[in-house]
Amino acid sequence: MRQIVDFLQIAERLECEYRLTRMSDGAQQSVAAHSWNMALMAMVLRPYLVNNVDFEKVLKLCLLHDLPEAIAHDVPLHQQTDAVRVQKHADESVAVNQIVDMLRNDDIRACFAEYDARQSAESRLVKALDVMDTAVQHMCAQDLAYVGEYADNFYWKMFFDDEFAKMFDFEPVLRGVFDEIRQRVADRLKQELDINAGDFVK
């Protein structure tokens, strides 16, 4: 019982770990809220998926994929140089070991390894949902101006790049949803900030 309670105490920190993305009330999104959004999207999209997936595993991966950040913390994408990514991976590996050793549950270790490898249909879907949630936050954010404040519009240049959109092509429903979100974001940029989304595309 002690190890389970210790785990729950660590997992709670994910509610206190914040991402760069902002929500419709202007507050930053917690990593825990991000994981919950992904699980909810998986549930809603499930009837439309063309690839067969183990849905229980998908939900597990949604809930677990960022759990190491409760210990290792989140690093915004625009700050992730090669050296930072190496350190981030090392820190998260230590966190995974701490979590798994605490629970003595090799199934959870396998889930972390599967998500990291991105080889299974489930892990590919969950990674796409990970990115999709950021797109949802771009659409819902109270004020879109903040997104362009980082590294010379780093996030807008990525978001409107066709190569970025291709990551959803393996599931037509994902691509369809992303295209709809991207159009709504483009409309908001024009209406609210008089910014043409096409200006971010080379």
Please tell me about this protein's structure.
Helices cover 62% and strands 4% of the residues. The radius of gyration is 18 Å and the shape is globular. It has a single domain, classed as Hypothetical protein af1432, CATH 1.10.3210.10. The longest helix has 22 residues, at 82-103. A two-stranded antiparallel sheet has the order 1-2. With 202 residues, it is mainly α. The chain contains 10 helices and 2 strands, in the order H-E-E-H-H-H-H-H-H-H-H-H. The protein starts with a helix and ends in a 9-residue tail after the last helix. The model has no long low-confidence stretch (mean pLDDT 95).
Element string (H = helix, E = strand): HEEHHHHHHHHH
Main-sheet strand order equals 1-2
Helix share bin: 55-70%
Domain module tally: 1
CATH architecture: Orthogonal Bundle
Overall pLDDT:
95
- The radius of gyration over CA amounts to 18 Å
Please write the CATH class name: Mainly Alpha
Give me the CATH fold name. Answer: Hypothetical protein af1432
Beta-strand portion reads under 5%
Number of helices: 10
